[in-house]
């Protein structure tokens, strides 16, 4: 009769795992390293949607958006998608968009605001926003939020499945605590938790899901409201790192399916190595981060 | 003494009545004024004039008397106090003299009843006087009498005692209630915004047109009352999951198993403060029990009104014999027929709603009924809010448990701790009983609850979630109410009216001495000592015993306060922050101001830290400002507050407690802004702003610092302040405008010298030393750092001394001093200046680590770096992390641990990229590419070196640029492009010769040697290798010397 059944085999947090747990061997020996994964890609031509609290227009660290929409209430009380005029209501969406930009500077970014203030998001708005984004066939949708309400689980699951087979990747933040919520809990999305490394490209694969990948999510420098920036912590900010990586993969290898992208992320994760006898690969293999000079 | 009604002051001390209005004067010692949240109700009778035209004055008088009586009955039944009847209007207050936790709901229920009662009166008038009755709310144009009602909740000052015939509450709240009544359509009830908020879930209402109220800048939102939710237990709580509570559920389950296994009735009492989650816990348990086949009944006692023992039992009977909890069907259920005649008679009486249906004589019958049900299946009976139960009900529970042997009956009694005031022995002496105090949720559970309140939750750190979690302190109701308030657009500092009412009612039940103690303590803060309380003067504590001993003991028993750790040092703290806030909020601001000022003096005389004194002075000022009145006195207080806070902030900054310094200086700046807004600016204002900017720079908030510095650098009249601002700005801009920094530093040095500003001189010197260091003139920079260090010691500024020592150590590492001598120098610096200053250990330790690595003592190097890393992490300073990673990368690459080196350098590159630190970024990248080249990954290294080399204006030092060019030369040599390699090596050497860094020179020579060898000029290669070797040897760099040896062997072998 307890609310949260024990599920010792399932991992929510990176801290649940030991070094041994984290060492993953795979029969694949194709050598998917960062070079293959991203090359010199900058995300050009990839359409990324940030389903969140909105994105501040023209924040210097986010740059111009390719569209900003919001879920509104229509005359009959039904949710509908309208052009957004409010920007960001709390800073969270701007931070997510900025992190995606850091990784994939040339991708197309579209914001869909499904939240009001800190506490005022509704499940109906989330469903409406996600439905719209899935039908718009974005390449990647970043979802750094969730709902604990079972009432919305079925609708979200259908949309996640529709996206998966329609070629749209949903990258969803796991709950920060050991709490069941949606849509990150579905197998058709890529779910993301946090690690504390400062490397934005450092990715860990979790051999015992529900959380499938860990990315940088502690003290992440990110843009915030009013043209400012701050250090953000939470799975919310690990998720756009993976969304950005997915955008890079898409731009360097056109036509990847969500299944393929997930496999590539797994094979390129820092804790996954090819043969049982070899030592794990160093944290992030491959070439240096080639950005054209500092200024 | 001040008149409670007309506020006339300066009465003679012995005066009994006000000289102006005649009101009885009350000594403030006897009955202290208090601020409290009340609900005011105004009702106006419509139609009496028309009635007056048709009735003789005598029957009209009778009608009005009946009207007054009816209205008074309705109001008093719900606990309201009728303040006055004015002609056809009535004004009442809920919350005076006693505050109830549900005053708003009581007022609205009274308003609803008043309207119903008037319908009854109309019907009677129709019969008696031949006036056609109409309906109150219907089309009833014919209704002779109707009401307009306004209800509003808010804060008032409540003065003196009730019953002196004058309004004793005053404030905007009452005026707004009157406005609401005037704007209410005939027959309607209009609610003010806080009343509406306090009713959450208990009433149905819709927004009415906002009211424009005189003197209010914004229209007032009003709500039209449509209906009341009759059964409070049916109020839907937020559908949040049950969080935590494993232990409590386990205990309930265990008792349940025992009850069903042994067939002995069990009394399970859940005790706890309001909102802690007792009912939610009971509901979770009964749900599970019902799933396992138990018969379940849940009934709730009411604080007042018709919900007596009979009503509670009737609800139990309805559920046990009917369809289950919440059924509204009052008809006797068919299954009652199978019971004995006595049981049938009792259930009939109960279900027909007889108010006096239960007496001790019926206890046996109730027992028969329960055991009859329990024979078929086990029974769980939940009695909620038992603190409001009538004695009969409590006796009945006793009886059922004592006599119910053989019954599979578990009674779950849910109550606040008040139950123990009336029944201290509750639950004792029973054969099978459990009493469980429900504790607050653990912080993590509470956070999860707060997060789960919204339908959709963001997965980032939310200040709002943190604030609600912290303030609600594990009370789920408080958390839900605060979250709901936030969702309605309230601020994170606002207290929800429901929570305020709950706590105010709890405090209102305390004795005057206990309330007085809490009030005094609340002004001190969350923690206080008895001497703090007595420092406030006022009435002497009760005779005999230690001061405040009796109220302290009472409050400790009530868990309103608790001793701090260690328990016997005489310090107490409010158990809940919100209790402190409500106690503080109930004090008149006049009193708060006086007490804050007294505390400032008390703490100052006791040698307390200046921030504590300053904070009390600032609060005294703010209270006095809200009250209006003479400005000069309060501004003098504020001036003192600014001085103390500024002093505290500056001291914190000097100690390197950077975040705390930012907090204190922000408060100082805010207070000074408030004073400026009053037209009384502080003389120190510009210094405060510049010092705040300094603190902001140390914590990495460069943008905010710039915002403060730019106006000061441009327009500040005081040349010293202007110079400080300019110097800070030049340092912020050093990356993009490297040539500006030395010029500005020289200019401001002249200003500081003329003004004798020792701190300024230290900083300007430090800046010039950093410029020499950046340009690679290390010997010169070392001399400048020495000077700055001496100045810093004279000025007593620690942060500057630490910076100078760090610079000195870097000069020893990179400059011409031989390694052994440099290590000795660093070792000398540490104890001489360390004195426990961890910033110094970190600043000197990093370069020293590389020096150790150069002489192959890698363990010593790693230990120093680990310590530096720990210090920086603990101080919460982000900026030096990139440097530490760079140093660690250098150490590991000198040690030949390639993977570790690469990892550290990658992190250094990432952090310096984000910080815009081009020099560190280039250095980290160069070393990484070097590792690749050595590791056979020439392609990767080449890709990196093919970028445009950093130029003169790039902010990259010549040492780093030389290193970059040397690497490129080696790569080109390896690629078989000797001419390009030689070109690059020449550039490297040219840059190195502009510096006095031996290491840099050696690297450039070695690159040149490699290029010569690649071009086939072996002799020249060996000569140049010898140059490199000489430089490495002069420096004492054993690792570098090893590289040369290897090169020579390769060259000779080729």
Automatic annotation (TrEMBL), chain A:
Pfam families: Peptidase_S8. The active site is at residues 52, 92, 236. The keyword Hydrolase applies. Residues 43-269 form the Peptidase S8/S53 domain. The keyword NADP does not apply. Residues 274-295 are annotated as: Disordered. Signal peptide: none annotated. PROSITE patterns: SUBTILASE, SUBTILASE_ASP. Keywords: Hydrolase, Protease, Serine protease. Belongs to the peptidase S8 family. PANTHER family: CEREVISIN-RELATED (PTHR43806:SF11), PEPTIDASE S8 (PTHR43806). This is S8 family serine peptidase.
